[in-house]
Amino acid sequence: MPVSKILIANRGEIAVRILRACRDLGIPAVVAYSEADRDSLAVKLADEAICIGPAEARRSYLNQPALISAAMITGCDAVHPGYGFLSEDATFAEACAAHDLTFIGPRPEVLERFGSKYAVRRMLAANGLPTVPGSTGIVSDLRDALDQAAQAGYPVLLKPSAGGGGRGMRLVRSPREMETSLPLARSEAQAAFGDDSIYFEKWIEESRHVEVQVMVDQHGTGVHLGERDCSVQRRHQKIIEEGPSPAMDDAGRERLRDLAVRSVVAAGYESAGTLEFLLDPDGNFYFIEINCRIQVEHPVTEMITGLDLIAEQIRIAAGEPLSFRQEAIRFRGHAIEFRINAEDPGDNFAPQTGEIESLQLPGGPGVRIDTHLYPGYEVPPFYDSLLGKLIVWGEDREIALARSRRALGELEIVGVKTNVPFHRGIIDKAAFLEARVSTNLLDRVGPAAFVAG
Ligand code: MV4
Hints:
Layout: E1 6-8, H1 12-25, E2 29-34, H2 41-45, E3 48-53, H3 64-73, E4 78-80, H4 90-98, E5 102-103, H5 108-113, H6 117-126, H7 142-152, E6 156-160, E7 170-172, H8 175-193, E8 198-202, E9 208-216, E10 222-234, E11 237-243, H9 250-266, E12 271-279, E13 285-291, H10 298-305, H11 309-317, E14 334-341, E15 343-344, E16 350-351, E17 354-355, E18 358-360, E19 367-371, E20 378-379, E21 386-394, H12 397-410, E22 412-414, H13 420-426, H14 430-433, H15 441-444
Parallel strand pairs: 1-2, 1-4, 2-3, 4-5
Antiparallel strand pairs: 6-7, 6-8, 9-10, 9-12, 10-11, 11-14, 12-13, 14-21, 15-16, 17-20, 18-22, 19-21
């Protein structure tokens, strides 16, 4: 479990964020980069960097032998996978362990156990978490699916057990739709995840997406760090996240946070993790899935707690006990995160690439920017479109919103189209201001649009 030098096996803003945590902890770090990221900010800021392969992620950031060799060549004893890529890959965590490298995340056997969405749902339900009514297991065949859906009642949402984040889900409104959708969902799941196991849940109307951040050490002590509300999404991509949830009262919040941490500790989870819930209009919450990694939106939690989640995640992987107790965590104010993407809101959010000609970042009280951009940086076409995050804090939601307006006004990225104008629009929409955002894709886009993506 030693952690005395860390290989950062990721790119973009999260590579920079991890590097900063390493600096603050006094731990040397090595940035692993693809040929396309040679001129990246993480490489520029790093003490040491090593090329792990060509641009294509399969051959670099997903190339396990290349990453393990890079760690060994540079004398690292730990690997931080960031989010995405290999961050929840039990095989990679196992390969790290086999080479005496500490994987900064849950230990491989824990990742393995939390890898099946359906199994996790059952395990956490057994530990006291409310889940959405639905199939009692993986559906075996069409007959079984029809029988179980008739029991649960339509509409239902088919979910691949090996998937995550909404990928491959399908809405089914009738037995006839089940007949066509189940085989399609199966073959999609097989193609996308190499596993065609499908389960289903009743569709929750007008739900919000609320998630609880937890931290559990290897000695079985866990804390929650509050919840985030991620109800502003587009094609299952979160766009704006905030905390605390503006849709919950203090009693509901307390119950959710407490149940979440108690159930994962009982189930043997460890490291940083996030439990996702749907919140219905009556204030009922239902567990849907767990993310076994640090998430894009972790700064929301850092802003309202004043803690460094990456540093804590590293300490946990090193076998240290949690550095704070639940009672010592003070929640203060409200934070909102805006994901800044290289995409054109005027062209159906098509991904953009090109050179950042100039960059003007906002500042002042309550404003944090996590980005890998610099003037002259070339946004490569090979990866996701996240350019960075603007995170704004205020004593309450009103103040945070006012500061967000100010900060979004100051932010200017020239050279590549971004979704900044879209954020400026959203922030003044009544639905967002009054926290009435929810999804009812059933009415809004229909089932045809509700497929992988
Ligand atoms: C649901 C749902 C309604 N009913 N599950 C899961 C992953 C996430 N990206 C979206 N997920 C949903 N799961 C049941 N049983 C609706 C969604 C959903 C959603 C939820 C909250 C906020 C925005 C959303 C956008 C699309 C789908």
